[in-house]
Amino acid sequence: MEQNFEDMSRKAQYKLLWDEYLGKREGAKKLMEWMEEAGFFESPASTKYHGSYPGGLCQHSLNVAFNALDLCSLPAFEGVSRNEAVTAALLHDLCKVGCYWLDDNRRYHYTEAWGLGHGTGSVTLAQRYMKLTDAEQVAIRWHMGMYGDADKAGELASAYKKCPLAMLLHHADMMATYYCDGKKGMGLV
Ligand SMILES: [Fe+2]
Ligand SMILES: [Fe+2]
After folding, report:
1. Domain annotation covers residue 92
2. Domain count, the chain
3. Which pTM was predicted?
4. Could you give the CA distance from residue 123 to residue 118 in angstroms, rounded to a whole number?
5. pLDDT surpasses 50 at 168
6. Is the residue at 42 inside a domain?
7. Which of 36, 48, 123, 187 is most buried, taking the most CB atoms under 10 A from its CB?
8. How many angstroms is it from 95 CA to the middle of ligand 2?
9. Host domain of residue 62
10. Is residue 41 domain-resident?
């Protein structure tokens, strides 16, 4: 008997979305293998705010993907590819892998491990194994919106104009951060 999606582990849910929306792409298998080895599925998403528990990064990425699919139904995002929306959502915070560590009191800390920046780091790490589309690259790079590079408002505006997926992903991320974790969102990622 098939298991209900809601009853699956968060890792199984992530992999189901992965297989459905990007699993057939060249390099997707290698990227997934690297993510497993690097600890993506055990990583938190923040030190003390949303997803600040083992597996939190996977759960946050899933929440962003669900929000992204909802937003795809809005007229403003007519034409945005659902495959690209889910791919960008599942990979937008990939740069956090390997950046969290626990102290003796079991509290998480964050040390930037890659030296690649936030959104740019996720794009770079993913593309070591699998090509992202132009829209996915732009959306992941700018997913922090104005919280990322406040001095680059002009570049952000250009990204939003040419790439509706960038606007969609930013809002899906904000919704997940503030409304989907059972806690008041305070830590932006
Ligand atoms: Fe982020
Ligand atoms: Fe995020």
Report:
1. yes
2. 1
3. 0.94
4. 9
5. yes
6. yes
7. 123
8. 10
9. 5-179
10. yes
Task: Give the distance (Å) from ligand 2 centre to CA of residue 51.
Answer: 10
Strand runs (DSSP E) across 58-154, as ranges?
100-102, 108-110
- 184 in a domain, yes or no? no
The CATH number of the domain holding residue 116 is 1.10.3210
What is d(CA 141, CA 119) in angstroms, rounded to the nearest whole number?
4
The protein residues having their C-beta less than 5 angstroms from ligand 1 (an ion) are 93, 189
In terms of Cβ atoms closer than 10 Å to its own Cβ (0-12, 13-18, 19+), residue 184 is exposed
Ligand 2 centroid–CA 7 distance in Å is 24
pLDDT at 183 over 90: no
Q: Which two tokens stand for residue 168?
A: 């969609």
Ligand 2 centroid, distance to 189 Cα (angstroms): 5
Nearest ligand, CA of residue 145?
A: 1
Find tokens 């189901």 and name the residue. Answer: 16
